[in-house]
TrEMBL record:
<dbReference type="GO" id="GO:0005886">
    <property type="term" value="C:plasma membrane"/>
</dbReference>
<dbReference type="InterPro" id="IPR004960">
    <property type="entry name" value="LipA_acyltrans"/>
</dbReference>
<keyword id="KW-0808">Transferase</keyword>
<dbReference type="GO" id="GO:0016746">
    <property type="term" value="F:acyltransferase activity"/>
</dbReference>
<keyword id="KW-0012">Acyltransferase</keyword>
<dbReference type="Pfam" id="PF03279">
    <property type="entry name" value="Lip_A_acyltrans"/>
</dbReference>
<keyword id="KW-0997">Cell inner membrane</keyword>
<dbReference type="GO" id="GO:0009247">
    <property type="term" value="P:glycolipid biosynthetic process"/>
</dbReference>
<keyword id="KW-1003">Cell membrane</keyword>
<protein>
    <recommendedName>
        <fullName>Lipid A biosynthesis acyltransferase</fullName>
    </recommendedName>
</protein>
<keyword id="KW-0472">Membrane</keyword>
Amino acid sequence: MAKWTGKSKGTPLGYRIFIGLIKIDIRMAYMLLKPVSFFYLLFSDKKSISYFYRVRLGYGKLKTIVSIYKNYVFLGKVLIDKIAILSGQKDKFTFNFEGEEYLHQIVKDQKGGLLLGAHMGNWEVAGELLERVDSVINILMVEAEHDKLKDVLHEAIGDKKVNIIPIKDDMSHIFGVIDAFKRKEIVAMHGDRFVEGNQTVKIPFLGELAEFPIGPMVLASKYSIPITFVFSVKETNTHYHFFATKGKVYPKERKPALRDESIKVMLTDYVNRLQDVVEQFPLQWFNYHPFWENEKNKS
């Protein structure tokens, strides 16, 4: 399962050190990644990421170890790029926005929208694109992560049209999502991880059952909000590729059987797209938590 406590690697001090290096020269921050990534390769808990490469993708032992190291390096570069982009240094990068017209249409229709992404590549590329389509974006973020990084995020983001909705144990964030939908705004979240108490459904992913959250998808259906699947990947040190699917409004079903089937259709559409991207860019899926049923049972 992708159940998560909300805690991630890294500290505000660590982020500030990298921010300082980014302001001097982003290449200096990149250079620091190699020893840091090697340290994590030696001492971090690698069970889940190893299961992904070794079991689900069928890699050998050596290829798995090398892939984990490269994954850590990619993660570090993405975090560095994230801060650079949010702090106004997007001119250091080039972007290819595939499916941008779909987001323009969502904003034009003034119905709001749900952008469903994953812990894949660089989520902030979507935020930069949303500046071009002139819309407020509400980002769901786990409360523990938000509390830890809110000052750093404020320093980096400034007055951009971004609203953070902390995901809380008492599920009160759902009201934040509902309010955003009622304001016809866009809500963005990752669909490949959940915290205790989330409404979830199990569905095959990379050949094995995995659990995915469905709460915001159900709300989008209830309020007739179009859902768009968005992913962004780092293709070179300075180039990102953003993908967005055409917005789709899933029917709101009242009968339990039809409602369950509608939810399955929504989730299957998302998981199929996620699987395509993960298989194409396996070094850029940043999941370090138990995800699949068999993996959970072995934990």
